[in-house]
Model the fold of this input.
Amino acid sequence: MNELGEGRTIDVLRLCVDRTESDSSRIPDRLAELERLDPATAVRRRDLHFRMGDMPSMPGHDGGADTKGWLIDGRAFDPSRPDLTARLGEVEIWRLTTNFNHPIHLHLNPFQVLTRNGRAPSATDGGWKDTIHLPASQEAEIAVRFTGYTGRFMLHCHNLEHEDRGMMANVAVTH
Done:
């Protein structure tokens, strides 16, 4: 169900089970240990604000005060601009804030949720994540460490209408 939908967009998918299958899987006695990123090792802290705002003039948009878009830190996406620069292997703490419902997604790099609204995160926030849902007027702190390779990573809202209207950012990861 799409709880933000209207009309036909409310019901998204129905699963109908029409047979029984055997299940030979088993849960191991002990799960693998989860690496925890230590916030004390963070080399920088960032505040990232996900909000509606005035769109700048850009291809496909007229811009101006009457044209609204979804922005990160007051800026609409520009594919030629790195919005953040991070260094490979360094831990950073990002505080994400929003004034609307946004599922915030980071491509190709997991993160860990440290807090929600200044409190300990829920059990569903445990482990490595690539997306965090932030309801309106909420905030979360996440620990991020880019590993594997340098280059550009995309940070964006996973609501298609929001990313189509500018709510994306390039993260340039360097050595």
Remarks:
- The chain has a mean pLDDT of 91.
- The longest helix spans residues 160-164.
